[in-house]
Amino acid sequence: DAGITQSPRHKVTETGTPVTLRCHQTENHRYMYWYRQDPGHGLRLIHYSYGVKDTDKGEVSDGYSVSRSKTEDFLLTLESATSSQTSVYFCAISEEPSRGYTFGSGTRLTVV
Amino acid sequence: GNSVTQMEGPVTLSEEAFLTINCTYTATGYPSLFWYVQYPGEGLQLLLKATKADDKGSNKGFEATYRKETTSFHLEKGSVQVSDSAVYFCVNTDKLIFGTGTRLQVFP
Question: d(Cα B57, Cα A84) in Å, to the nearest integer?
């Protein structure tokens, strides 16, 4: 979606390797989120940020870390990828959560 | 705790049929409620929203009313089209909770 980009769009990695996914926004929104989407589970919140250097855990944060050193970038890191982390990852941004979120196009990650 | 419960899919309809996708929520506060739609191979898009009790959100012929007394936010459309085929998510902004999604398939 305009104003928010995710990279890479697709990635295949091996078990045990570190992986970093990037979310970049040009909207200057305060809030940024990482979700994963899996069949039968919908979207589940991994981590979110409510400002530079301000982050908090979501529902499924184990095995993931995040960093937000500047407003426009929110990085999601899998320290040691496992097959259970094979998923589609979506980033979202929001100026004010009660107004809604804008989602990126997603990153499809496969851990083999 | 906080949650969102959606009816399971897939929902299969013929074109011009009436659509209802049920959604109920629990929340400790007074959340905003959204419906998001995900078309095949794409990210999620906001379809409609309601920010307080008795609000009705509407967009593209879809409607949903925020009913506090029944803690529901059911999605409705009077006449679906093939292009409405997608996955629909009910969202509770209290704790940022998504429903599991309901796949709608509309056939000509």
Answer: 37
